[in-house]
Amino acid sequence: MSPREIAILVLSAGGVFFAVVAAIGLIRLPDIYTRTHSVSKSETFGAVLALAAVALTFGNDLSTLKTVLLLVFMFITNPTAAHAIVRAAADQGIEPWTTEDEES
């Protein structure tokens, strides 16, 4: 295995790991605020790692440039969308989960 193939494998595995962490966070966390935080951070990082692996796979090609532009686009839009979702939830009056909710 060449060092390039190892790097692609490590980046892909990292992307899958963070995608799984995002899915677990979405399922396990109690309210929209914690879910959005978990998903926006780990899914963005997982997508960045996966797209970096794709760009490394393509090598020096126009497809690499397109992949890098997509990576930058996702790096900017994912946190922005998460912020908009949380802002909308706060504007609707959705209260964050507390331990008092569990006692009731």
Task: Summarize, please.
By secondary structure, the protein is mostly helical. The protein has helices spanning 3-28, 32-58, 62-91, 99-103.
The global form is elongated
Order of helices and strands: HHHH
For the secondary structure, the number of strands is: 0
Low-confidence stretches: none
Taken as a percent bin, the fraction of beta residues is under 5%
**Structural class based on helices, strands and sheet pairing:** mainly alpha
Radius of gyration: 17 Å
Structural account:
The protein is mostly helical and 104 residues long. The chain has one domain (3-96). Helix content is 85%, strand content 0%. It contains 4 helices and no strands. The chain has helices spanning 3-28, 32-58, 62-91, 99-103. Helix 2 packs antiparallel against helix 3. The mean pLDDT is 91.
Helices and strands, with pairings:
Layout: H1 3-28, H2 32-58, H3 62-91, H4 99-103
Helix pairs in contact: 1-2, 2-3
